[in-house]
Queue: 2 jobs
Job 1
Amino acid sequence: MLSFIIRRLLIIIPMALLVVTLTWGLIRIAPGNFYSGEKKLPAAVEANIRKKYGLDLPWWQQYGMMMSNIVRGDFGDSVKYQGQSVNEIIKRHLPYSATIGLLGYLLALAIGLTAGTIAALKQNSAFDYGSMSLAMLGLSVPNFVLGPILVLIFGFWLYWFPPARWGGIESLVLPVCTLAAIYAAYIARLTRAGMLEVMRSDFIRTARAKGLSEKTVLFRHAIRGGLIPVISFTGPALAALLAGTVVVEKVFAIPGLGNIFIQSVLNRDEPLTLGIVAFLSILIMVFNLIVDISYGFLDPRIRYE
Amino acid sequence: MAARQFRRYQLLAFFLIVSSHFAGCSSSASSRYFGKTVAPKDNVLRYVSGSEPETLDPQLPDGQPEARIFMALYDGLVEYGPKDQQPIPAIAKSWEINPNLDEFIFHLRDNAKWSDGKPITANDFVYSMRRGFAPETISRTAVSLGGVIKYAEAFNAEKVFVKKGDKFLLESNLGEGGDSKTAPPFGPETEFHKSINSNRVTLDGDEKKRAKQLEADPKLKAAVGEAEFVPVKAEDIGVEAIDDYTLRIILRQSTPYFIGMLAHQYFRFVPRQAIEKYGKEWSRPEHIVTCGAFRLKEHRPYDRLVVEKDPNYWDAANVHLDHIEFYPLEENATIMNLYKAGSIDAFLNHTVLTSWIENVRAYKDEYMNFPEAATAYYSMNITKPPFDNPKVRRAFLLGLDREALSNFRKVTQPLYGKVPTGIFPAYDKAAAKVSEEMRGEKGIAPEAWSNRYKFNAEEGRKQLGEAGFSVQKNGDTFSCPGFPTDRASITYNTNENNKAIAEFVQAQWKQNLGVTVPLKTMEFKTYLPYFKSLQYEGFAQFLWSGDYMDPYTFLGLQYGEENEGGSGFHEPKYDKMLDDANRELDPEKRLEIMARAEEYLMEQLPMIPLTVNATNWMKKPYVKGMYPNPGTLIPWKFVYIERDPTKWDKDVANIMTTADPQFEKQLADLTITQKTAAK
């Protein structure tokens, strides 16, 4: 087990560097640069900019410098927001995304697990059909549609919550609900499918034959196996949610990391893009590792070599 | 069970009825105003300023979102006038201009202070300029705006003077005109002024490039001979503190619109004490020192930037707002939502969504629909066939009904020339006069003349035929099988509005000329180099907002070999006309020469003018002293919150002419120093 974890942790580093390298290559292929604007720059000014940011060096030298900085954990300064380091920008904007991400995740889990489990236990009941249709709807309505609909109802008809911007608990309600909807729907469907499969398996029949109460069967035996597909979905989903969701952040004007990430690409802000990509890739790989470890606790049949 | 379900449906139905009832109520209860309209209790303005500012160093960025924030944080020698953007006194209480329009003396107030309490003197402006033009500052705006200041461009480009013995090589030594001035002295004579009065030759600082430059010009090479090369230094540029409160700026050529440019963010005062102490980190919230009516209180990037009234400001008694909260938002729908919910009081230009305009226009006390010093064109790549043929260019111009385009866009006026109409009244007058003269010279009937650039599908088809691409009539439609549509496209950067325009224009040309020009769209930063390096074929969208309130900001786009116009157009004749105009000291005559240049440009037709934009923004009626000027650049110290609803702004279509006693008095008191000095 320990050697498995160490092995996986060691793989994360070269993987993250590979991701950064590929991203760097893609940014370099993209036309345009951070300093171009609508106005033409005088040649002398452009030359000075290129010199300052090392863009006049051969590409392999630039790549080497970038890599050696990143290995030391220093992503340098943003080239768009002058005087701000990439690390401080990520640190500053992550909490916004993480707050709505975590709340949305917990809400989605609460709704999805409950609805999915009840639907599986009462298969083919009105609740099953009702909740699964709602889940289908949740999956099909994209969040850029759901968000404005919620704003219309709760922002302008009922005046319950502000339509956008960060500030106070009431401003969190609409973005969190928008964010949670699609994940709740996924989780509900995965839970239902997983539970249905487990409930029919041999070890559940054995448990029942032992004379265990239905409650014990469900909570001690069924749920652990039934949740495996949910866990493999929600692990990476949590990473993605924490790191920011562009659409919800745009619709509700939340200064989160997702918003910053997209802007950095549009601005050709190479250090910032690379920093966020590296951060995200490590985050996702760590969550995947956690998911893999948790399998062992949930299903005694899984062993790590 | 059934009964319970029924109750649930009843509940849902009730919920829907209640919610729609609320919606009805909310719109009818305050139907005069758009959404929630309650004046705030405090003197606070909540304003959406556009994208997140790059930095709070005013000398670096060139965007308007930054400009709006800098207008709160920094003062310049002059400020944009609230209604017309013409310069009004700021740190300079008055100024004088020499008859050649190339030397300016500013009299600074002696009570201006930085936010840290230090007095602001003429030396601070000298420092600001030396720092702004320094190559290591890497200002993107320095040369494009201030390049007209003597030796500023040479200093920025790290050029060298040529020194022979103890004398500098002068342009007069080369016998190319530009000799030392014999103009009467202007202001007190100083050593600096004496030395800068001669026009020194400047050469490239790089040895190889300089060798090339000399090789290409044997006369210059001979004159240079075995000379010493001295780098142009910060101290050489034409900005001089005569004393603590008297400043002189010397230009390399007469520039009648120079004072107007000085309100630009680049020319605002920057604090030497903070820059020298903290380097590039000086503009961070913990170190920043400002000189505007407001100082920085809080900056949470991508969320808010809050400024508060600065008690050290020289005119603090006339600053009405205690705080301004700037919100850096870009999503138009989100901005409109916030406005409707009453969470913001006003927002930047071009923000009302096209689909909302019909609805929003009805709110006459809030919607700002005024012409803007901003234009939309389609540049044509005249270096590639078939658009190297003027007849083809003319055909596409005539084949487009720009009046219909304006009606379709709802917030624009059709544009038939290079300079937007309705923004520069004196220029419009001069242009009308020149146009009439030219009509007389050519002996064309008045109607035909005034319609010469307007929609005329038949003439367009004729021109296309004469260019070798005959248009065939098939029943009600036209076709032009010979036109190489694979050599043309309408290219624009991805954006809903740009797409709507392109599709409209495409349909027009198909209908009127029988040519279906393909559309091509790309992301903004990809588009810029594609457009500027003339990789496109046919048409490329080009939007331009004026940098200062003079028609030259538009006409200059096609000036010089490396111009901004993106058409591959360069005509020495056109350049000369503009040079002549700027050398002309009589303002009326100058505008007439410029109008002739515009006529010439329209004959050459490197671009198809499309529309003059409208300001297209909103403010709550209780926000007063805020006017829809041509660049949506608001001098914040005039803005105030009016809590008495009877005094709220009404029918803002007349806002420019409706008298507001408080505002008028403040403006009159402020401008009196310059009026008494100038005349």
Job 2
Amino acid sequence: MPKGHGGEESWRKEGNGRRRFLRWIGGGLLGLIALFFGSMVKRKLYRLKSEQHPVRLPLDLPQGVTFHEDIIINRDGNSYRTMSARCNHLGCIVDRKEGEHLVCPCHGSRYSLDGRVLNGPATHDLVCLHHRINAKEKSLIIEPPA
Amino acid sequence: MKRSEQLRNLLPAIVTAVAVIVSLAWFFNSPRRQTKELPKVLGHREGCILCHLPMGGFVKAHDPKAIGCASCHLGNPFTMNKNGAHKDMVLVPGNLGDAARTCGTSRCHPLLCTNIRASLMASGRGMVSVDRYVFGEISSPNGRGHLSELGDSPAQEHLRKLCASCHLAKVKAKPAVINQLSRGGGCTACHIYYSKGARGELDRYHENGKQPKIHPALSLQVSGSHCFGCHSRSGRIATNYEGWHETESRPEEVSGKNGYRILEDGRVFMRMSPDIHFKRGMECIDCHTWREAMGDGKTYFHEEDQVEISCEDCHPVRKPSTIARKKLKEIDKKIVKQRKALAGITNFVLTSKTNRPLLNVTLDGTGNVLVMGKNSSKTYHPKVPPSICTKDIYGHDRLTCQSCHTPWGPSCIKCHTSYDRTGMGLDHIAEKRVKGRWAEKKGKLVPRQPALGIQIRAKKEKLDTFIPGMIFTIEHKDYPGARFRENSFVFRRLYAPTAAHTTSAKGLACRSCHNNTVVLGLGEGLFSVRKSTSNVQEMVFESLYPARKEDGLAEDAWTGFLDERRGMVSTRVGARPLSAQEQRTVIRVGVCLPCHPADAAGIKKIYKDFPTALKRLTPQCRRPPKMTFGRKKTAK
Amino acid sequence: MNRPPNQKPSFIKGFFNSWAYLFPPPGLLTHAALFLAIGSGIALSFVYDVNRPFDSLQVLALGNQGGIFIRAVHYWSSQLFLVLAAFHVIDQLSKNGELEVSRGLWVRVSFIVPLVLFLMISGFILKGDRGGILARQVLEGLLGTLPAGGDILRFLFLGSPHNFQLIFIHHVATTTLFVLIFTLEHDGRIWPEWRSVVYVTACSMILSSLRTPVLRPEGLEIYVKGPWYFVGLQEMLHWASRPGWILVLGGAVFFVLCVLPLASERVSKALKRFMTGVFLAYLGMSVVGWFFRGGDWQRVVPWGGP
């Protein structure tokens, strides 16, 4: 490169400019891929949520409390109370009954049999789930949480 | 080369050598079992089955192929290393301390394991309260207490040394066949059954450590022999039921003689009339329900509160209520499904006391009660009570069935219990001999008809059977602790209510009560009517036994003749002997009986409405009765 | 920001001087432990089935002697990696090591801390036993407490519910790759030093022989505790009705670590004291959680009694 025309300096400036341009292009392309990735994740999350189907259980459940995956059913005679078994502290599944309490195994939160929080660290009651009875099929249909 | 550099070069070599040696040692010590298929039970693999099966003796519900071994015995099913697999293993899973993790997990029997902790069979609450009440440590026999949580006081020490082995919470340390000496074990106290083969395998295991090939069955097959050990003590209902009364004889004195039985603990029993239900082949569980034995979750003071059955349930006066099979609770449905004997029942009779189903009692097509033997599958047709029981007879409204159908019960009088600080006694909780011994000097053990007394049941007065369980003195002046010095010598005269379990098919004759000083609560003696010095006819009672200096009553009496004894008279709140008026009423009828027997005609004409009959007394009746009954002291 | 680069407090100086007498520096040992964990993890992946994780480990534990040993080596090498990494961090912070690298590199090196923690917990979750499932639920819950994006983060880190595929990928690939890259970048060498390899491998083998990590049967235990290094977090979560603040505290510590090179000497000392305080408090919580907590995280007395 001839000197006096800015020489290596000007080439370097040119090189710097090109590098900066390439960086912007590269960043842009990666950003585009990130957008596609974000869209993919969003779609997947949406699909996961929509794949939540109602749970069907037989009506002839035992009296008292039954644990079924992440649902708690409390049957008293012919009336049912359905709740999410997810502890409101951190979402651990409450899967044990001790006396008249439902106990979370992770940090010891306690709930009454109808889902009211009695002892922390949880501060809210268990989420009530909607259910309906299909008398013909003799089944209890429990809707997923909203 | 500096020392540190030398070490830095040498140390890796040393560490490598150690690692290689230790790893090779691990490799050669770890089991290299040829694993075929790795069995899966309850969603996980079970290594236990690979070493311990084939093994027989299980019922279907508890077969390792269904539930594995680790769900009961814990340990670690995920290793083939013996020590690792057996670490934290539970040898006797039924002990109540372990039950929450074994029998009582959420997949198995959580409700029963919760209920049983409050049950009297586990806590012995009544025993603890009554004993402390008798010792004067608490003011009422209705108290708290648990045989596994005894504190430091003379009564609790007394329980620890003499009584505390008989409760379900007592730990059973090793597998053992259920026999007369068995105590505790939680669920396995009742639900373990050793077949002959299983017994042999267990013996071989104790002898040479050889792995048993037959496991005892865990089943609903609870026989009378499971109950016998503990219930042959205290009120002796197990031995009474089979028709045996405890004597003071020694085994060598009765060896070879008929009519005696020597138990495994060396006590000698003599033949008496057994309970009619035993004679018919019924076992304890044919009457007693699972809720009575294992508890219903509620806490009761005494056994009669926890018992929910009554004679009327099977021998009904009115048509009993029933419940359909499909309306049973889940747990009842499961039990019914398990028992072949109950397979055909569609309706179950409800208890009159608690309105809960009796799972082996039903009505036939004509409305008669049928009782199924739970283990035997026999069918029993209990009789309906005759009209004498069902139609009111004057003065009999407060009687219970057992008042007339209990010909005998054990009577124990004149005991002395003292504390010896220097002697050694077996602590049944700690299971070791420790300093301090309670020495019991037993008095007479006599089989006789129980006394009648008043007990409060469902807030009503009932005339029930009582026996002298506690006519004794306690002395504990040597018991450490200044606060126990007061009341270190006490005398008690307490009768206890009993269901003697010696039920007779036929009711006792009227004279058995009305002409019986023991039934009146006076103890044995001679009752007579004679002229006094002032020419007045008077009723006189001479007791057979001498009077005690502490209260002037005879050795075996509950109350005095025409006495009003109140206060600390029984081991139950509200229970008492017959009052003076009640004694007069009983004797007044008794006076008529020698001449006017209580046959059908007599009952109809006189005893059914006794007050009206009294108005029709003939001149002959008005003459003073020459009447004596009871036992006279014989001159020595 | 004019700080002399090689000042060390006396106690820690004494400790690491003694260490250096016989053993390679903690950094080299950490490097070696990472490689051993990766190597043993690759070996284990031949028998691990992500579709039935717990079952595949049970089959391994019951029927594959070599597999049991490899799993044990993987476990112990990863525990050693965590402990040695902690020593390395303490060592470097004590001699102002944050000033010896560029700021960009320091931030990347700081990222190793949360990545390593995620690596450890993902390994614990991948066991698929009751403890792993509960740990996953806690982590899902924690991530879910973050406002605006908690759900997405939860999915990005843990994947679909009841599915271990993404956690597995993160454990064996994503997180491991980033940790490896950042480690090699700041270490300046690719292959671990031979003496460190010998020590770490020998220790792992000895520990594996003496104490093979056991699988705990699901459903046969009333309670499980998390891994020992997260017991302190469990104790903190027990007290925190709003668990999001725990994440804030963790984020604050991480932020402090990242900006250390920018601080003056006085501020740097104060920040290091803050981090030491947090670390000691966490140790204290770990002791409480390990020894004084029983079933349902209720208080127990380790020597018996009520």
